Please model this.
Amino acid sequence: MTRRILINGQPVDPHPSATLIETEPGVYSVLVDGVSREARLLGNDIFIDGHRFTFEFDDPRQWKRNAGAAAAHGRATIAAPMPGKVVRILAAAGDEVAAGQGIVVVEAMKMQNELKAPRAGRLASLDCKENDSVLAGAILAVIE
Amino acid sequence: MTRRILINGQPVDPHPSATLIETEPGVYSVLVDGVSREARLLGNDIFIDGHRFTFEFDDPRQWKRNAGAAAAHGRATIAAPMPGKVVRILAAAGDEVAAGQGIVVVEAMKMQNELKAPRAGRLASLDCKENDSVLAGAILAVIE
Amino acid sequence: MFSKVLIANRGEIALRVIRTLREMSIPSVAVYSDADRAALHVRRADEAAHLGPAPSSESYLNIDRILDAALRHRATAIHPGYGFLSENARFAQACADAGIAFIGPSAKSISMMGSKTEARRVASAGGAPIVPGTLDGVTSASEALAAARHAGFPVMLKAVAGGGGKGMRRVDREPDFLAAFDSASSEALRSFADGRLYVEKLIENARHIEIQILGDRHGNMVHLGERECSVQRRHQKVIEESPSPLIARLPELRARMGEAAIRAARAAGYYNAGTVEFLADNSGNFYFLEMNTRLQVEHPVTELVTGLDLVRLQLSIAAGHPLPFTQSDIVLRGAALECRIYAEDPANNFFPSPGRITQLAEPSGPGVRLDSGIYPGWTVPLDYDPMLAKLIVWNDTREHAIERMLRALGEYQIGGIQSNLALFDAILRDPAFRAGNLHTGYLDAMLQRTPFTAPPPPAELAPLAALVASRLPNSSAATTPPATTPPAAPASRWLADGRQNLMRKERTR
Amino acid sequence: MFSKVLIANRGEIALRVIRTLREMSIPSVAVYSDADRAALHVRRADEAAHLGPAPSSESYLNIDRILDAALRHRATAIHPGYGFLSENARFAQACADAGIAFIGPSAKSISMMGSKTEARRVASAGGAPIVPGTLDGVTSASEALAAARHAGFPVMLKAVAGGGGKGMRRVDREPDFLAAFDSASSEALRSFADGRLYVEKLIENARHIEIQILGDRHGNMVHLGERECSVQRRHQKVIEESPSPLIARLPELRARMGEAAIRAARAAGYYNAGTVEFLADNSGNFYFLEMNTRLQVEHPVTELVTGLDLVRLQLSIAAGHPLPFTQSDIVLRGAALECRIYAEDPANNFFPSPGRITQLAEPSGPGVRLDSGIYPGWTVPLDYDPMLAKLIVWNDTREHAIERMLRALGEYQIGGIQSNLALFDAILRDPAFRAGNLHTGYLDAMLQRTPFTAPPPPAELAPLAALVASRLPNSSAATTPPATTPPAAPASRWLADGRQNLMRKERTR
Model:
């Protein structure tokens, strides 16, 4: 096996002495130095004791993913996490925004929810307006 | 679809108006005339409200199974349901035995268990003796 | 007793009622919208009736369709659960008109307590202390402002037809008053088709303590002790418990509040299970807040400390039977806690997280009760309140009950969607919570103080994650589309995950 | 309190102890044999130590390996659970010698009560009534026969070193005596390496009623009321309950039996949780039977009616703390029932049915406690007792508790192996059980009267089964090998299924 494993973006070698069995689909019992732990696989994440580890395979024969450091300097999008209605816009296109700053408020499941900038940058575009109905996954804003 | 469905050996047409969804693997929610029932698929059996229905497909293009009426007149075997030790033999080869008559006693999981004749007939062979260790599935006796 | 009962509700409370009906050998009829054909309450009921499309107005809130289902299935009584039509006087009346027993109070009692100002008047007339403020709803901001000045800032603005925190605003200073009034009034108009508000003096650091009462149709009424529900976020209860830590300190308060609750309920001619909510300060002063004329979400904590089945008693009362006990028979034992498990992400501003539940491990064992409406493989619909389940524990003392809840939370795993399980862990370990120093602003203050974020994962666990990953085929990573936001920002990752779950759901519908 | 506790057991009881340890913030160490690497108690413990191969003698019964594991993991105490080494005086002594606290009584108390004849002498000396018969174990059949003639037939032959029904025989007539003696003696020799038997007069239609006691190391002792365990098959308890229906009728009996139990336990210098078993007739006469010097399988019914956590109290006693209450603080409330869920087929002579659990739905909701050691996908090993779980319910009255148990059983689905779930449904609906007319021969008589067979499936459900089948591909039927016995004989079909499960298991190991 030539593939490397990246955990949270960093290459990590599998533990050399822990033993592992899959007890239920996606649920693993891990024994390491006499300690019993449970690991759960959900999508691209492995949860151990409530901690999330995102894994990737870094295989030269595979399409090179650029989700890591590269993307942090590229575009970031704010997408509607579910169908809903835009009730407030908190920033304007062209604004410099801080990481965590609220950009758009969407009402869904009877709750108003503020969508925040995932990182600092310039609000390159704002692709919705107040009272818009939006579908799940719709891109509402782009930060560069 | 030309296949016929046999339920407990008899051809039965699927209910024409009931609605069915699979809610969990092998578990079905059935609504029929406003009544809510749960059906569970386990191997060749479908359980509804605790009742067991064994199903087969009677498809002319498929190998014809002879598990039904034909087998009742053929051979029946008594097999060890699990690894264990034969502790007593209750009949001799050549005996005429009644359905439900005890033939062999096997000890397993710290319990003695009497294996009974599945139907009436002649004990054609007895393939074990007292103190034999037997594996799961081992044929212990044949009734003809 | 009734020959068949329809439950005009969904989710865990429908299942809760089905369970008692089954114990009483009464056939149950579930109702369901298009979004709920696969819901657990439909699977577990004896019968099920389709109501209509997913929106509540065309299904769970549609009186005609529910009565039609009841008549079609020959149900002789309807249990409304909580929420939906449970406090709708018109529904209670429509049941009576259709010759179907409404398992609740009279339409008249619902009306009296449904108007918050009317309820204040009734309770006050009955002798229960009320929060200083207006006795009537007002529509003019200036009239409200005068009342606010009279009571003294800070004040609360509340919708006359209110509930669930809608149309409610805290106003600390006079200059903010008019804007708050307009915004609360328009929210109330939107939510309840009634923009009237009333003014109450804000009781600082108040506890929310409520009294469970039970009255029959023969004039007998008892209280079943209190529940403290001070752990709230956005005026929504998050954790409830009985006994209240305050009353544990001031034991004579229970009888005083219990009597005040009974007085208020009697003044409304009340029968059925009901809850009288109070604000209380740490000196033991308390004020009537409102009355809920139905079974409460948090009724299990009272069931655990009293040993009573409130749903069984509701049915018995609705069938005209007298209460089988008097006040002196009610004995409270030990301590119970309830956590409301929601499909929401506490690390991301409590964003709702509907979607498909891919993994589920549920707690069990000594002293643990789980009232749940979910199962692995089920898709939490977008259309309703995102409450998944209630986890309730009992133990001999509050401290031991908290320890048991932490143990049970550790056994609880919900995969595929975000849940607020980790939030409870944080609250239950908080020294202020452990000390019982609660008030309705407690949780907001705690979250302000220590924002709810995932701690950095311990480095020594990474090689174990890598070991799990090493057993997986390459393809399992490739199935997930690249995230739209970088993995360095966890909040956004969770957003992205939520979206992916939703998209999966859209495809599989 | 202890800094870490090893549990020298497996299955549901190991999990039960782990849960209380977690609530007390004490790290737990599970032990496991080769057959149990994937068992739930290993998954749920904080730490886990491998003992050896599957056979108990090389794992769960191996004192050296267990002590070695405890030392390796730095456990400062060992909880033995029930069965295995829990009543082994040599083990209790070995723990003490290794400087590890044994969470149980002294080795001396175990020895005194471990010999059934010695226990009879101790109890009798303490003032507890005993069943007429021999005070000493005998090895000669003629000596035993003389005692039997003196007591009068029918009599029971019992192994001095006995337990779990081994080496036990009922003898109704003198001509059967010698054969029964030989067979019981050789079974006792095989099971306990001690062939000595003793003779007791058979108390006809006796009830099995036992008293839970709790004593500390400072001489304080209380009883926690009774459990009735008269529903037995082959001397194995099947359903346990508290209060006993007999004591509900004769309430003063509880205090009398409780005092007798305490006298017997005091005579053995007992501390820890323990159980004194009695036979009782319907007039309220009762006789000491034996004492179990450990936590009992059925301890949860006592926990539910008393509100106590017996495992927490065991730990507290073992740590040297005095009992936190006296007899007058013990209040019993409501009624609790326990069903022991086994992997066995009641329709086929209760044949054990190990194998892979392919589907699992577990009961929950009000008043339901499940102490379980299984999960879907787990393979029940061949090597140990086939108990899967205990389902325990509480409600305000016995009648309501029975209704609740029936409801919970209806929610419980175990697929892939046979279980005795349907048996409980039959017992709980039996009028004699409902009336509380119980004795230790009750279940055998009921099964004799109405043999446990599946009723013929209702014809109107067959089209629904066909509907399910119509959605399946042809191949799903072809994957199962043809049965060796005809489908017309249901018992044999079940046998065949059991075998198939086993074969699947063998392939996947």
Notes: The first helix of chain D runs from residue 11 to 23. The CA atoms of residues 213 and 223 of chain D lie 4 Å apart.
